[in-house]
Amino acid sequence: MDQEPLVSVLIPAYNMADTLGQAVESLLAQDYPRFEAIIIDDGSTDQTAQVARRYLPGGPHADGRVSLISQANGGKPAALNAGLARARGQLVAILDADDTWPPASLSLRVSALLARPDAVAVYADANYMDFAGNVYRTRRSRPFRTMGQLIASVICPVIGASLMARMAVLRDIGPLDPSFTRSDDAYLNAEVFRRGKMIHQPGVVLNYRNYPRPENIRLRLLSWRCDLRLARRHFRGPARWYYLAKLTLVMLLKVGYELVTAKK
């Protein structure tokens, strides 16, 4: 196992004291032990930092693979930049502080990348769970071929938080744009896809926490604005206008669905 690649797991956290412990415990329970966990407390005003310190030397659940970065609030991309600056792994995965991983999450994705040296990243499937942590459905990612399919589909083919990428690719991208505080997964996926092949590995690697519908609608509207910026970044000419219109239609369909189902 010592010959296996080191995985840097970045855990950005802002006011996630209620769920951070669950996320870290799921990481420590992985059947692939060769990882480092970097928790980035992004200026939290709750007990997030105190929860993180439980896993540092001297804490009740100390694990030498866990470290903590504390910084002023700057949003998720800024937190990831801080984590990447410290990371030492050959592979990188992101564990959001309100999600959890099943025990084979790391090993499944590492094996996929070891088997495909031509791929720059791997993505997989996810369980959706409610705020209480109850799983209510499984969502499958799917293969895709074009940037348009990646960032402008009604259902995105890639579950962003399931991504594992090679460190060399992230170094090539450089510092992530801190202004993408929403649609950060889509932004990162697009930057990775520009640099090489992303492969789909069947299997659940993530328990994704889905928030109540009123929050979902607000977040969808915020994400839509960032999605439009992605379209402007990656498309030119008539294609740009096509995808701007398509993204707006996708947003309206999703918000409409949330409103209709909320009445049931």
TrEMBL record:
It comes from the Bacteria. The keyword tRNA processing does not apply. Coiled coil: none annotated. It holds the Pfam family Glycos_transf_2. InterPro entries: Glyco_trans_2-like (IPR001173), Glycosyltransf_2 (IPR050834), Nucleotide-diphossugar_trans (IPR029044). PANTHER family: GLYCOSYLTRANSFERASE, GLYCOSYLTRANSFERASE TAGX-RELATED. GO terms for molecular function: transferase activity. It comes from Desulfarculus baarsii (strain ATCC 33931 / DSM 2075 / LMG 7858 / VKM B-1802 / 2st14). This is Glycosyl transferase family 2. Keywords: Transferase. Residues 8-173 form the Glycosyltransferase 2-like domain.
